[in-house]
């Protein structure tokens, strides 16, 4: 499935000129196999160079939801420090799930743009959920040998 967002008329260009200077391409290629991941392709308007970014790239959601993030705020990245009072925690960074839980939580000190955007907010929540699930599935896919060998070791221990 290929969905390309383009500006159709000069009035659309005038309305959306303040956003970003790239075109966003959403690309899902399956080829008969399950879709491994979802990529965003950014094509610069002037030179036509295409750059692929993953779901872990900081401006991923800002590029996908330009109306919710008109200033292109950075989103999740792998080096967000985890601040906790517990010293037993093995992790030093915030997980993807924790980041989106933080973003979706309503606070009095922040604006309500995200929560009052109606259907666009619902789409954002679903996309955030899918990104977290894809990240978990990717982890399981990368660590299959470790997971399976651990299961076999326990099974072997139970027979002895």
From TrEMBL:
UniProt domain Helitron helicase-like: residue ranges: 99-159
Name under which the protein is recorded: Helitron helicase-like domain-containing protein
